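sorry for the late reply, my laptop died twice this morning and i had to redo everyting from scratch. anyway the thing you sent over, i finally got around to it. pasting the sequence first so we're on the same page, its 310 residues, then the predicted structure underneath. double check i copied it right bc i was rushing
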Amino acid sequence: MAETHIPVLVAAILDGLAVRPGGRYVDATVGGGGHAAEILAVSSPDGRLLGLDRDPDAVARTRQRLASYAERCRVVHASFERLAAVARSEGYFPADGILFDLGLSSFQLADHTRGFSFGGDDPLDMRFDPTEGGPTAADLVNTLPVSELAALLWRYGEERSARRIAEAIVAARPIYTTGELVAIVKQVAGRKRERIHPATRTFQALRIAVNDELLLIESALPQAVEVLAPGGRLVVISFHSLEDRLVKRFMQRESRDCICPPELPVCQCHHHATLQVITRKPIRPSAEEVRVNPRSRSARLRVAMRVGGT
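ok and here's the structure:
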């Protein structure tokens, strides 16, 4: 496949993770292996890295890419919802740094069997791991009633035309390809003057729903805190506002000693801070990076450091 994946915000990631020789790092979304290769190079000669990915194709590709680091690298086919268990079983507990890159890879977008891209006429699948079974995007668009489909498009895509798009989808059923879905969305929302493609939010919403992405992030972030050693770094790259808000709120919550409602006069939660927020505002790619890699334009990077605990 001619497509090349360009990792985003590499320098900021290496700085955020405070990569050093001898460190133990977890790339919870190893994808094309670009970030993992940089971490292994900077942590030379004895730094180690554990890579996880839910996509079996990404795992096979990245194992090959990182073969020269075989003694210092392990790549596992696993969702990051199993982060703590995999880190323990693979000897990366505790870890000095954990990275989540929540974006799609160029390989996934270019794979015409997966249905992630709205640039072709591909099967409407969108599952990160087809071996898991579960509903595809085609299943959702062909079975959900209008009200549920509209709610999905609004909740996960923040699509302002959610109701009208849902009604058009239901009227056009059955729909089996990305091209068919794009044509329907364009008829409803294609006249808006926006920088993004009119189907972007619809595809985002369906992908998130198919893969339970937000629920898995909510499950994985506390596990990352559990796995990190004191002083270890958590670095998260998100690509849309739903992810970024979730990450921001988690880091803010975990940086406070008390999370009781403000109306309570005395703390009853007995919560202790587990993180120190390093980036008060997210780090964004430079204009030059966006020029070289336009897919980086929406990336937001946040960093926190593990405090307390053992």
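The radius of gyration is 20 Å.
thats about all i looked at so far, will dig more tmrw
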